[in-house]
Specification:
The chain has about 250 residues and is α/β, with parallel strands linked by helices. The protein has 2 domains: about 140 residues, NAD(P)-binding Rossmann-like Domain (Rossmann fold, 3-Layer(aba) Sandwich); about 90 residues, Orthogonal Bundle (N-(1-d-carboxylethyl)-l-norvaline Dehydrogenase, domain 2). About 50% of the residues lie in helices and about 15% in strands.
Amino acid sequence: MPSFRVVGPGRAGRSLAAALSAVGWESAGLLGREDDPAAAARGVDLLVLATPDAAIGEVAARVRPVPTTVVAHLSGATGLGVLDPHVLRASLHPLVSLPDAEVGAQRLVGAWFAVAAESSAMGLVQRLVDDLGGRSFPVADGDRATYHAAAVVASNHLVALMGQVARLADVVGVPLDAYLDLAAGSLDNVRGVGPSAALTGPVARGDEETVAAHLVALPADERATYRALAAEARRLAGRPEPGAGT
């Protein structure tokens, strides 16, 4: 089985290390901030730089290149150039949320991965995805910022939106779980029929009186988010903003 080493023992690095070890890959250990990464590429098939994005280039430059070792980072927004001067460069971004190493290792099994690599490194990258039972799609360097922005909206912004739901649920004494079940059903609908067909509610019906009533009822500091998302719902439904064209 291939061997690997991870630089960066944070949630992503430890999750990937645990997942790969569980499917038989040979771990050469994890290196942290206090460790010298100069020889990190020696003696392994894959070196993973699981550092914060801003540190990838600095760490990559400190690692002495080994021409037979694939050096990969886990950043969603960063291209391959940051891994110079290494020859076998790759990026491997798991499109999952990794809250801790134990849960993260489980979620990496069967996950989607955004991949990019030099042609001579792609075989090992694809084997990693296959060994984890995952699925992959390519993302070119020039598209990575847009790709990652979509990932942030799908994950981080969704969590922030659920934060608003939790605040409003608390005001009226409704269990958050009731709304989470509603949200889960909506996501199932999107998966089944796509965003446009899955849209329901007052904006989809053109019921602007209900939208206006919501805005009156909401606390003042919750209205801007509601207005912004109602505008996005109108865009999805192909409906004009109230008063547009008059």
